[in-house]
User: Which sequence fits this backbone?
């Protein structure tokens, strides 16, 4: 059985430490093992990053960007292999994995603009013969901790931008599906990145805590569940680090009576069930305004769901694959059962799907639940599975209040033909990413990704312009050259 190690200082490293099984979620079998790094191994990676930092910091931005240009080329060249590794360990269908990789590549493309992104500001004669300018300098060694659901894309939200800004990087990917992340990182060396600038540590809480407490690590980026995000943010901040910690979600879509219902249904099917609902931007709640809209939505959703196919990643005819673990499968099924027990209507039951040839896989079929209320456990929780819940309300104001009252504020959407309603919604909804007839409003690479309320801990969003600011610190220089031989008198006031 293959054992997956770590990438430290440009070399694959094994430390004979604790290991954990890596499952193929479609077969339910452990096909690999991953090493869980000890504190000493993490410290070795930090030391390598620290040693590489001075030379990389002083490398011109255009030369750092050229590495990213080459890296982009290698990602595209090896796309099939990357998608295969994602499918084997996450279960994501090949076309979905290709989409994930493409969104990651777009962040690499943005990072290629480093010389422009890192330009400072200059002012001449801010005082008598005094000039002032700002610079954006790197932080040093920075770390990223990433989730299982996007093993390619989310790491590329972080390290390409961090690296072109002049930092060195330590990535702790999910131990559930580490191979694609590790392979992607290894391509950086082929692209010309100096050893030690990018390091990958596989591990669990021991590795995370080492990164959070080591004083050589200056900043931490995280994507995962809200309880962990809160812990990461609190611990990193207590240890003097800059931190952005992106947490959970419960994304609502308001379906207005005037919506193009066929279009809304098509969009909801993909947004709710794509990637088995294991997306922090998945639309897991549809809020129907009025019974007419609710009845039409349920009827058309039932029809649209009849032909959905759940199965193994390599069959591109499948719409979505298994969930990540047996425990998570049981958890999702438990939430479906609890909704039915608490009075909701189970319209389409996906608890026991039949997947021929993969009977032991961690599959959950597409599930539709009607008449859900805000008091139900299934509504309060982030299910993170292929489950769409429908709540019926009488007015748009009631729908918006439902969203604004929820502890999460990651993404939301409204389906409507009414421009005034859409404008009011986007202006007053307390959510960080808003779609208008767009079900998954994930910002493109040159904007920034982040939610509100308990979906984000920290001030700056991920990637894009906020990412540049997160991975750099501003320095302002004020300069004056007095005339030769002219001695100035004492001044107790600011020069002006």
Assistant:
């Amino acid at each position: 059985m293959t054992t997956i190690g770590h990438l430290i200082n440009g070399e694959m490293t094994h430390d004979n430490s604790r290991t954990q099984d890596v499952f193929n979620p479609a077969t339910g079998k452990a096909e690999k093992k991953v090493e869980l790094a000890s504190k000493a191994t993490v410290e070795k990676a930090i030391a390598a990053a620290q040693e590489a930092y001075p030379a990389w910091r002083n490398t011109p931005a255009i030369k750092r960007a050229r590495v990213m240009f080459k890296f982009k080329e290698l990602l595209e060249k090896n796309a099939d292999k990357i998608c295969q590794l994602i499918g084997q360990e996450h279960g994501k269908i090949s076309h979905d994995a290709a989409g994930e990789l493409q969104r990651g590549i777009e962040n690499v493309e943005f990072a290629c603009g480093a010389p422009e992104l890192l330009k400072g500001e200059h002012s001449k004669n801010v005082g008598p013969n005094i000039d002032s300018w700002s610079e954006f300098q790197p932080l040093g060694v920075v770390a990223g901790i990433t989730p299982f659901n996007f093993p390619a894309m989310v790491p590329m939200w972080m390290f390409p931008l961090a690296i072109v800004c002049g930092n060195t990087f330590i990535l702790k990917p999910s131990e559930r599906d580490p191979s694609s992340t590790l392979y992607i990182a290894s391509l950086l060396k082929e692209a010309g990145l100096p050893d030690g600038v990018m390091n990958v540590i596989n591990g669990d809480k021991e590795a995370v805590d080492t990164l959070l407490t080591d004083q050589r690590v200056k900043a931490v980026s995280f994507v995962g569940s809200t309880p962990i995000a809160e812990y990461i943010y609190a611990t990193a901040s207590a240890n003097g680090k800059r931190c952005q910690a992106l947490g959970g979600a419960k994304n609502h879509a308001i379906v207005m009576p005037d919506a193009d219902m066929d279009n809304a249904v098509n969009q909801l099917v993909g947004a709710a069930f794509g990637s088995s609902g294991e997306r922090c931007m998945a639309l897991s709640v549809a809020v129907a305004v009025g019974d007419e809209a609710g009845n039409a939505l349920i009827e058309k959703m039932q029809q649209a769901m009849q032909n959905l196919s759940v199965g193994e990643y390599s069959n591109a005819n499948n719409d979505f694959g298994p969930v990540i673990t047996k425990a998570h499968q049981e958890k999702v099924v438990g939430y479906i059962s609890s909704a039915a027990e608490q009075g909701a209507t189970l319209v389409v039951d996906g608890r026991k799907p039949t997947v021929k040839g993969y009977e032991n896989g961690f599959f959950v079929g597409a599930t539709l639940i009607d008449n859900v209320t805000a008091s139900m456990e299934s509504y309060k929780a982030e299910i993170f599975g292929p489950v769409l819940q429908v709540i019926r309300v009488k007015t748009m104001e009631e729908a918006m209040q439902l969203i604004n009252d929820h502890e999460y504020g990651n993404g939301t959407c409204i389906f409507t033909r009414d421009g005034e309603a859409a404008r009011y919604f986007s202006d007053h909804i307390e959510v960080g990413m808003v779609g208008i007839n767009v079900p998954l409003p994930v910002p493109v690479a040159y904007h920034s990704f982040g939610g509100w309320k308990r979906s984000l801990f920290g001030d700056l969003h991920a990637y894009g312009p906020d990412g540049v600011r997160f991975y750099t610190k501003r320095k302002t220089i004020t300069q004056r050259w007095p005339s030769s031989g002219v001695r100035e008198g004492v001044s107790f006031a600011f020069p002006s």
In short: Residues 251-436 form a domain with the Aldehyde Dehydrogenase; Chain A, domain 2 fold (CATH 3.40.309.10). The first strand starts at residue 2 and ends at 4.
